[in-house]
Structure formats: C-alpha cells, structure tokens
Amino acid sequence: MEREEIQKRLKKELDKNRYEHTLGVMYTAGSLAMAYGYDYEKAMIAGLLHDCAKCLPTEKKISLCEKNDILISKVERENPGLLHAKAGMVLAEDDAIRAKEKDINSFVTVDEESAMIRAKEVQKMIDDGTLTGPLAGVPVAIKDNMCTKGMLTTCSSKILYNFIPTYTAEAVINLEKAGAVILGKTNMDEFAMGSTTETSAYGETKNPWNTAHVPGGSSGGSCAAVAAEECYYALGSDTGGSIRQPSSFCGVTGIKPTYGTVSRYGLIAYGSSLDQIGPVAKDVTDCAALLQTVASYDAKDATSMKRDDYDFMSALKEDVSDLKIGIPNSCFGEGLDPQVKESILKAADVLKARGAEVEYFDLDLIDYAIPAYYVIASAEASSNLERFDGVKYGFRAKEYEGLHDMYKKSRSEGFGPEVKRRIMLGSFVLSSGYYDAYYLKALRTKALIKQEFDRAFEKYDMILSPAAPSTAPRLGESLSDPLQMYLGDIYTVSVNLAGLPGITVPCGMDDKGLPIGMQLIGDCFSEKKLFRAAYTYEQARGAFGQPKEW
Description:
The protein has helices spanning about 5-15, 15-35, 40-50, 60-65, 75-80, 85-105, 110-125, 170-175, 220-225, 245-250, 285-295, 340-355, 370-385, 400-415, 415-430, 435-455, 480-485, 495, 525-540; strands spanning about 105-110, 140-145, 180-185, 235-240, 255, 275-280, 325-330, 355-360, 460-465, 500-510, 515-520. By secondary structure, it is of the alpha/beta class. It folds into two domains: about 5-100, Orthogonal Bundle (Hypothetical protein af1432), CATH 1.10.3210.10; about 105-365 and about 445-540, Amidase signature (AS) enzymes, CATH 3.90.1300.10. The chain has an eleven-stranded mixed β-sheet, with helices on both faces. Helix 8 links the parallel strand 2 (about 140-145) and strand 3.
C-alpha cells in the first residue's frame, strides 16, 4: 500500500489531534532517515503506522501479541496501553502482506489459522532443541498441485474446486519434518499447462516487478510469492521449465533437480515422465537448503532414485576453477532478445573471470525439443487427466442425460481452454494411425536429445544458456498466440526430456526493469556442481534487488 493511501485512510479513521500527532511522527521519522542514511519512504510509513493499534481494546492488543508469540513484559501487562506499538507491528505486517496479495494474486488458498497453530508448535520444538535445522519455523508456500491433507488442492482448476486430499505429498511431509510452516497453496496455470499463470480458474497472477506483466508459469504463484516477499521460499513443479522460466521472470532462484531426486508421490501429474518438484527461493543458499530437505528416496514413487549424497549445502563454495562450461551456439540465434543475450554473456564472463573455462559448441537437436515435448507431455496429460470425470470428487455438471453426457459436460465445463487443447492433442497423437507417426517419433527424438546431452557432458561440466528468450511479456499477449507461448519454453524443455537438473539465477534487468535469468544445466545427479557455479556467480554479482515497495 502506498504512503499516500495509508495517509488518506488514517485521516478518515483518526480524530484531528491523533492524526496531527501521527503526521508529526511521520515527518520526524523521515528526517531521521535522511540524516542517518536509511530508506526515507519506509521510515515515513513506519511513522504513519506507529499508532495504528492505539485505539484497540486492551484484550485485542494482548491477543494479537500472544497469537504472534510476541513477548509481553510484566510492566506491559500491568500497563497494556504500552502494547500498542507491538500490536501495531502485527497489524502493519498483515496489511502489507494482504496489500501485496491483492495486487499479485499469488495464492489460491491461505490457511492463516493452521499456520499460526503450526508456528506455535514449531517454536516449542525449537525451544526444547527438537528442531535445529535452518528451515524450522520458516513460512513456505506450496504449489497448488501438491496434495496437502485437509487443505484444498485444486491445480488451479474449476474441476477440482472442492478437492481436499486425505494425504500429503512426500516432499511436503519432508518439509513438515524439518519444521516448515505452510502458509497455503500458490496459484498456477491450470494443471501446470501454461507458461504465464494466466490459465488459472482463480484469476491471473501478476509479476511483482511490474503488475502489467506475467510472472511466468506454470509455477508463477510460487515465484511471485517469493519475489514479493509473501514467503521466504516455495515449492514448485517443473514439467518443461515451470520452475526455471518463472524464476527468471520474477528475479528469484529456482532449480529443477534430476528426475527422480524428489518424490512425485502426492504431485497431481501432468506429464509423469517429465514432472519434477523443486524449490524456489531468493538465493542459491536457500535453494540448496530446501532441496536438501525435500529430496529423498521414496518407495511409494516408482521413479524415485536412491542417491548417495543429499548434502547440497556443502557445495556452496566460491570456486569454479575446475569447471568447463559449454555455451550452445543454437541458444543465441534468432528469436533471442538482445538485452537477454547481453546479460547472459556478461554472466558467462563473470564465471570465466573467476577461473571457469568457457567455450561455445553445437547442440543442434535442441531445435527438435519443442515439438517432441508437446507431443509427449500432451499424450501423458490426456491419460493422467482421464480420472477427473465428475464421479467421485470435484466438479460435476448440473444438467446431463445419462452417464456419458455427464462425463462430457463435466469435463467440458470443468476444464479450461488450454487444458482441453492439450488433452485433445494428446488423444490425437495416441490414436490409431497417428501413434507411430507422432508419439513414437517423439519418443525416439527424446532419446536422441539425451544422447546429444551425454556427448556434451563428456566434454563439459555444465551448459550455460538463457532461461527464456525474453523477459516477462505483458498480460494477455501470450494467450492470444498459444504457439508463441509454447516457443517461449525453447531453452527449458530439453532439460526435462533428458531428465537433467537445471538452475536459474537472476543475472540482469532489461530497460523496462524486468529481471533476466541465466540457466545452468548439468548432467544427471550433478546438482552440487550447479550450486557451486551458481553460488560463485551470485557472490560476484551481489544483491539483486527487490520489486517495488507496496
């Protein structure tokens, strides 16, 4: 919320003397901030809000402090009027988050009550030494395609508008064991089918850096929530770039781990051979800590892999002197925004200056990744989404004649246009007469792409590329041209086809003030090398900055 708006609201709510006192404190705070080199606007807002809880009843002041585990001294209990500053702090923080959410729409579901109960439980375990890890007590957001027992899980689709799972995804269970506090479920492209988070049945998510632009997708809600500081970190899922591309658009760090590293149990599937859960955070360190927590072998997931080493945080060292990095020529040709190209190559120069060997090479089969991906992903989606038929749970059409008509109308009304488009494409490529021509050919292409990467990794430790060909487009632009939206995944989908890990790190801004992300791709199970290179670059880059203040 802008200072002017806060000021107008206070003028209406406060009596004349209280309002004049508040203005005096505001100007004093602003003057002190200028004198001592602090943020002027923040100081002015703090001055405006310093008395926002003064008129609350005593019981309410005490309740706010107790609910938020704010210490109340003996003197304050005897003189509760002194609590107005502490209670005001809670109100101001709540208002700030709500103001952000109103503008951004990062969440589909927010469970404040459960989060507060959980926070108190975790605090007790921290106090008694039961929980000692870095994530204990830290608020986290979960993408809305991961099941959470007792909490609405919709995949941002009308067809699952009332679905409350009876179990929790394994990755989320691992977070809970570490003491994480779940705030709620983040908005996404419906069933993860999209690159902009505009296909959600619950409204589009907006980019915190500029709300006229998209945050990317499909994990746009998770990335926007982290960028807007509504939460410290979040879980997303990546089928063809759905963590890395929105991380690039929102100026945050996100990693898609090697396929099988994080259990897919409880993840509502889009493309089962491609989907992988991964973390989104402000920096590389938090990403490493989060992946270290959620990664595990899980017998309930047939694709889960046993790994010898999950200690990703041990890789956070400033040293790339032993790394050889390849840059594909095909990633810097036609269609790449010149400002994106410039930022990516500058980032490569930073790694080179820190001792890495950087070399250009040919990775030609990447041109075939987009058609192969959309054939395979759509085929798997058409099978995975057959279960949503309006029979056992979710949306059911109100008027129908017979079982077949109920199926048809429930699915027609419950699914959005993009989901229906991909289901129909998938059904087509799996149909008799087209299976060999499209689906089997796409699978052979997938195998060839993996072989091409294998040859590249015989020579290079990792591959450096853009995460997206441009910065975040304006709202509405991509949906008007679906093919152009699909081509926006050109640098990310091959990573999923080959089952490789990939990380996106902010590396610049365009002239519109929108973030640009660099992508580092590694061989299977080489996340530690990626974290080391990303961390080295991040330390050299310094702080990336924040979106606009609310």
